[in-house]
Amino acid sequence: MQQPTGAGFQPVSPISLVDHPGTQANSARTSASSVVFCDFDGPIVDVSERYYRTYQTGLRAVQTKGSGPPLRVQALPKEQFWRMKRSRVEDGEIAVRSGLPESIVETFLQQVTRMVNHAHLLQWDRPQPTARASLALLKRHQVRLVLVTLRHPRQVEDFLSAHGLAAYVSEVYGVSDIMAAHANRVAQKVDLLKHAISQQSEFSTAAAWMIGDTEADIIAGQQAGLSTAALTCGTRSRSHLQTLHPTALHETLLAAVQAIIHQAQVKAA
Ligand SMILES: [Mg+2]
C-alpha cells in the first residue's frame, strides 16, 4: 500500500457503503465501469448556513468576552458573507468588516475553528438541491462513486444516512483529525486522493474524474492525472475556479455528472 507523505495527513480507514471491492456480487457488475472521485462539502452538501451560523456565533462569543466596554459588532447579511467567502476573503478580514477590532480577530478565528465541526452547527448542513438526482444518475450508469473529503468518514456517513443517500456512495476517504485539515487543505487533499486512487485496484481509474468546489480538489485531481470538474455551487466563485484551469466548469453536481456520463457514452459508441 502506498503511504501518503504529506505533512499532517492522518489516514483513517475508508468506509465502504456499497459495492466494496471484493464483494463478489457487486464487483462483477461494476468492474468494467468507471470511477468518479468527488469532494463532499460543496458538491453534495450546502455548507453555507453552517458557515454563516458559525460566523454569527463566533462574533457573539467574542463580543461577550472580556471586561471592557461592549463591542459594536454587527454580523453582515448572509448573502454578503457568503459572497466574500466564495471570493476567498479571509475570515479575519470578514470579522474586521463586521466591526471586530484587529486585536480580537485571532480570538475570533480560534473560536470559529473550534466550533465549525460541532454537532450543533453541523445540523445546518443540507444536501445540495441536485445531490440526490446526481448520485442516482451515477448509480443508474453503474459508476462507482468514491468520496474524498477532509471530514471524518463517520461524519459523512451520518449525513448520507440521515438523508437517505448512503446507498449511492461506494466508499468514503476522509481524515481522522478534522482540525488538522485546516492547516494545509491542498496538500492533504492531494495525498488523500492519491491514497484513494491507489486503493481502487479492482476498478479502472484511467478515465476517472475528480469533482470538487475548491482549489484543493482541482489541484489534487490534476496532480493525480485525472480529469477535473469544478463546481460553482460551492465555496468558491466561478472566477476563482477559472484560474485553476479545470477540465470542465459546471454550476451543479448534476450538470457535471450528466456531462461525464454523456462523454463516456460518446467514447464507448
Ligand atoms: Mg469542498
UniProtKB/TrEMBL annotation:
Any single biological process term in GO: DNA repair
Keyword Glycoprotein annotated: no
Keyword Transmembrane helix: no
Domain of life of the native organism: Bacteria
Keywords, alphabetical: Hydrolase
UniProt-listed InterPro entries: HAD-like_hydrolase_sf, HAD-like_sf, HAD_2, HAD_sf, PGP-like_dom2
Single GO molecular function: phosphoglycolate phosphatase activity
GO cellular component: cytosol
Residue ranges of the region described as Disordered: 1-25
Protein name: HAD family hydrolase
Source organism of this protein record: Vasconcelosia minhoensis LEGE 07310
